[in-house]
Amino acid sequence: MNIQEIKSQRIGDSYFKIDHPTGLVIYVYPKEGYNSAYAIFGTKYGSINTNFSVDEGNQITVPDGIAHYLEHKLFESEDGDAFVRYAKTGANANAYTSFEKTCYLFSCTDKFDESLEILLDFVQDPYFTAQTVAKEQGIIGQEIKMYDDSPEWRVMFNMLEGMYKNHPVKIDIAGTVETIAEITAEKLYEVYNVFYNLNNMVLCVAGNVTVEQVLKTADKMLKPCEKHKINNYFEDEPYEICEPYIEQSFPVSMPLFNLGFKEKADSMLDVQKLAYTYILLAMIASQTSPLYRELLDNNLINSSFSYELFEGPGYCSVIFGGESRAPKQAAETIKQYISKLKNDGLDEADFEISKKSVYGDAVSSLNSVSSISNAITDYHFSGIELFSYIDAIADATFEDISNRLSEMLDVNNCTLSVIRQEE
Fold first, then answer.
1. Closest C-alpha among 3, 38, 82 to residue 369
2. Chain segment 44-103, per-residue pLDDT in tens
3. Which of 53, 43, 39, 48 is nearest to 74 (CA)?
4. Which of 15, 236, 246, 257 has the fewest Cβ atoms within 10 Å of its own Cβ atom?
């Protein structure tokens, strides 16, 4: 078993990466003096992975929403519900499915070993029958309808539908009522056996724990897996957006908007470009930026305004959004500001402020056991190391950020999605 200590000379912290004999990669980030612990058991399998093959086998297509469906069903077993088991240890447990991964997690201040045993047990022990699968269809069908009634959800997916022609990122994570009706116990076992292979998974633990403690439970609970090559297939996605504007009416008190800039997505961003992008976005749209002040002074946004880098396998975009009395005017102001920056160049004083802010946020996030575990999980699946990201922020130069601006945020390749008030 290979145990590697990963140290940061810059901030003085360290954590451990363990290549477990079963094929699972385990990260342990001990936090001395902390009372709580947080664990994530995740697989590189999300809503976009609906077309795949294993090794040299035939291509397999499964229904939209099956990854999310599987997440729901995995908590059940012949012996009862995993949440009932967690109640006995006092742990706070949850799970989520995103576009590119599914994660099961818990936090606790006591009985960590018992809670970790529960996590590693139920995620490795699927139990699906025709009856239990049919029962879940109504529950998830209601969840899908709930998302359809959420203006925040619709403004985002309307934008994705306007941006992406072929990539499944535009499809709702939960699927549709029609697609989940195609899900069977056999199909759930099929995707489980492909993607819930320990070689495709990661375990991240942070807080009041030791490596020895985690390995004792891991050695007891983990089941060795034969490694297979998983091939995921996506249709070619053009660089150009599909629709520049999409609008839907909802009973909202204030209109909502998402302005998405579609970026090139030939490969995932490396650690430097990731760091440069976050510094650049902070320069453009953080609360200290001239753009934010202009939007606020003109009553075009409120405190709900946000920005994010939205990236995964085969897709990448930058999204600005929030509530606005005049969404089209807000979007036009953002585009004009970006065009001005591209023409006139960035401000070096803004760069210094934003770099310090992004660096400070990254370092302060290491005080949160949940932030640590989530970040390491995300970076592991992206092929990035946590401390190298922090170093890339610290080492970024003004020229690096200026070059990054020239590569992205094409004001002629963006989609505005608006949820307007019903008349």
1. 38
2. 999 999 999 999 899 999 999 999 999 999 998 877 789 999 999 999 999 999 999 999
3. 43
4. 236
Helix axes 185-195, 66-74, angle to 10 degrees: 90
CA angle at 83 for the pair 81 and 89, rounded to the nearest 5°: 125
- Which tens digits make up the pLDDT trace of 204-214? 999 999 999 99
Q: Mutual orientation of helices 82-89 and 112-123 as an angle, nearest 10°?
A: 170
For residue 260, the Cα-to-chain-centroid distance in whole angstroms is 17
Q: Where are the beta strands (DSSP E) in 20-68?
A: 25-30, 37-43, 51-54, 60-61
Give the gyration radius of the chain's Cα atoms. Answer: 22
Q: Is 332 marked active-site?
A: no
Q: How far apart are CA 334 and CA 359, in angstroms?
A: 25
Task: Tally Cβ neighbours within 10 Å of residue 66.
Answer: 25
> How many beta carbons lie within 10 A of that of residue 1, not counting itself?
11
Encoded tokens for 295: 């939007």
| The two structure tokens encoding residue 178 | 């029609």
Token pair in block for residue 360: 């400070």
Give the 3-state secondary structure of residue 17.
strand
User: For residue 34, which amino acid is it?
Assistant: Y
Tokens of 231: 């091939």
The CA-CA-CA angle for residues 287, 289, 295, to 5°, reads: 75
DSSP 256: E
- CA-to-CA distance for 155 and 420, rounded, in angstroms? 10
pTM, 2 dp: 0.95
Three-state DSSP class for residue 195: helix
Report whether 21 contacts 194 (CB < 8 A): no
Given the residues 32, 71, 311, 399, the one annotated as active site: 71
CB 50 within 8 A of CB 63: yes
- What do you get for the CA distance between the two ends of the chain, in Å? 65
